[in-house]
Request: fold
Amino acid sequence: MNVKNFLGIGPVIAGSIIGILASLLAHFGNPGNMGVCVACFQRDFAGSLGLHRTSAVQYLRPEIIGFVLGAFIASMIFREFRARTGSAPVVRFLLGMFAMVGSLVFLGCPWRALLRLAGGDLNAFPGLAGLASGIYVGILFLRRGYNLGRTYRAPAIAGILMPAVMFVLLVLFILFPSFGEGKGFFISERGPGSLHASLLFSLGAGILVGILAQRSRFCTVGALRDKILTGDSHLLKGVIALLAAAFLMNLFLTLITDETCLRFSFIGQPVSHSNFLWNFMGMLLAGLAFTLAGGCPGRQLFMSGEGDGDAAVFVFGMLGGAAIAHNFGLAAVPDRILESGALQVGGPSANGIYAVFLGLVFCLVIGLFAGKTCERSSR
Amino acid sequence: MKIIVDARGLSCPQPVIILREALRSKDRASIEVLLDSDTSLENCSRIAVKDGCAVKIEERNGEITLIVSRK
Reply:
């Protein structure tokens, strides 16, 4: 067996294509600066399954299904599918839950933080600063031996379940689109959930991204983590490529169409609030939770597609977190321009603030106590 | 002295962290890293090469051994 092309430009290719597709998806119907947002789309996904009843954010986002199926297809073709599980599933579920709570206080995952910046939303800066800080705290735990324990090989069927669930949901969604309460999937008639590109484009883009990301190990959290931890910047180049590609595509679309895809400001940005502190704090929690779980929300979906049952549990945790965030009013409210023309600054509710602190305490406790005690040498 | 690092089943970036610990030990002749995923293999190979080492890969029954030695 030869040494693999471990210095390849895979992440740059994946990042560039994700950036271009995200800009196009927003142009063809997805919400503004939300061509792809793993957290927002899983929130819509949870809503479509009726796990929460916030009617503005319910849609079975085909991109999410595509991510898992694309990663599954790529891992089968390249013989990298490997069913595995057994590393602290309950902890991973709760990390997923709090990562989602943090993301919904910011109103976006790390992917969307980049896409918001690429669209000129300057509120992304405190979000990205929070993300970097969260990753840094996670690295401090990793350096002192933080470890959730090993995964073990599992029967193939255990690894195929996640792609299978996604495939069945897709078939059901095509056969039985929404009929309302008790009859099918919930689909928003107004709000961000009602804004979406065509099913075929969304699914196709999702599958393509899934394939590219599985091959390149694209990870927005790993990018910064590896740069700080080991000085390795190969994933970071992919993240910069995403940002640059989405920015250039937004610029191009703004120039050739009558749509404004690029506008630099703090206020009046789509599905965004200008509360500096809570943009920071939300992503601080999310960045820490993602780092403790071993990767960004996109990476967790891709790993769940290539047979990682623990990543699948994290994904379910995110769906559960979305449900809790909306059922208990933890998600932030976007800024709103009132009829009088005045700006109503959004941000998290009191419950949302408490939840972020609870999440930070949870992550700190896990970071401190899931450490050296974990037996490393035998298996 | 040969050091064996068992990084099987560990999630990112732990395989890299424990390989780096082993790379710092002074009395080693070579390091064998036991791995079970291509992602960890790529990450560990990258770190070892960056550290100025030569790497060789052996694969048996889905389990991978990365042999890291000084050039």
